[in-house]
Specification:
The chain has eleven helices and eleven strands. It has about 325 residues and is α/β, with parallel strands linked by helices. Helix 9 packs across helix 10. Residues about 325-330 have low confidence and may be disordered.
């Protein structure tokens, strides 16, 4: 099959990494990827325009792919930065101009994650990585967000929250303010010695959020043997269950037991101790929910957008069309 306008690109962009892929030409409803690349994600800097920064990272990924074109469609799910509709309406034409794209479909990575994880079906998806985004999508196309409020005001149960709790417990154990824990030795290896002095240098790190979130993996690794770490992991799983329960109740208030699909994404729930607490919490708090194994990811959700899938998520998608489009330098 040939297309009149050229290649279709898909993007999943977050704080740590941005992925871009090229769709194969295919008659399948959800075509496979031909190739993909990864570039660094969005590290916010005071005084820098987040819309421009996001556009620059998208262009960097396109260049890493060899600037394929002419570009028919770019479907993007992006975290942070251009998170409100006016910002997205400014970003979409910028991406179209710099890639020479005929059509840009732009939404949040919470939406593309939901699309990929539940394969376009209604339900609730919680994405727990560095932060937490919980999204309910109803069959009528209503989108309801729970949490996703950032590392200072929300993201309960996410990687930053768990990593921070683990580092605080490590410091408390180090100073004798709290119970002795294996997390102290883990923190010393990651942060430095003496721990009390070394941790203060992290305040100057431009990657502080990512650095703290990375410690969540250390907390999960020692949780089976360390009671302090285990309590923190159980709390993270329970917090995620609370967020999902709120989303189910708001999006599907009259749903009978076992009728609302619930799934997940992100590395935090990959830890067995956290997932166990999450699934137990869901069973206790939300009988309307039924847990579904994830069927895809955020990049897969962007593929569904690029392939013009009919899904109930489209109210959140900013669409920009260009009458004539040529890539820069062509």
């Amino acid at each position: 099959m040939t297309r009149d306008f050229g290649v279709r690109l898909v993007v999943d962009g977050g704080q740590t990494m941005l992925r871009m892929g090229v769709l194969q030409e295919s008659d399948q409803p959800v075509p496979p990827l031909r190739e993909q690349v990864s570039v660094p994600g969005f590290q916010w800097t005071a005084g820098e325009d987040p819309v421009e920064q996001q556009c620059q990272r998208v262009v960097a990924a396109w260049e890493a792919l060899g600037r394929p074109g002419p570009v028919d469609v770019v479907a993007l799910g992006l975290a942070g930065g251009a998170s409100d509709r006016p910002s997205r309406e400014r970003l979409a034409p910028l991406v179209a101009e710099r890639l020479g794209a005929r059509k840009v479909l732009l939404t949040g990575d919470d939406v593309t994650t939901h699309l990929g994880v539940l394969a376009g079906e209604p339900g609730v998806v919680v994405a727990a990585g560095t932060g937490v985004a919980c999204l309910a999508v109803t069959s009528s196309g209503q989108l309801i967000n729970i949490d996703g409020l950032g590392y200072l005001f929300g993201d309960s149960g996410g990687g930053f929250s768990l990593g921070l709790a683990g580092l605080r417990a490590a410091l408390a154990g180090y100073e004798g303010r709290g119970a002795a824990t294996a997390l102290t030795a883990r923190a010393e290896r990651r942060v430095g010695r003496p721990l009390r002095d070394a941790v203060k240098t992290w305040y100057r790190s431009p990657s502080l959020v990512a650095d703290v979130a990375a410690f969540a993996a250390e907390v999960a690794e020692v949780a089976q043997a360390d009671p302090v770490a285990r309590v923190l992991c159980l709390s993270a799983g329970e917090e995620l269950a609370v967020s999902v329960t709120a989303a189910v109740r708001k999006g599907f208030p009259a749903a009978p037991d076992g009728s609302v699909p619930v799934s997940w994404a992100g590395g935090v729930l990959g830890a067995p101790v956290i997932f166990e607490a999450f699934s137990t919490g869901m069973a206790e708090l939300c009988p309307a929910a039924t847990l579904r194994t994830p069927q895809g990811d955020s990049l897969g959700g962007a593929v569904r957008l690029a392939a013009s899938a009919e899904v109930p998520h489209l109210a959140s998608v900013v669409v920009h069309l260009t009458a004539t489009a040529r890539p820069e330098g062509r």
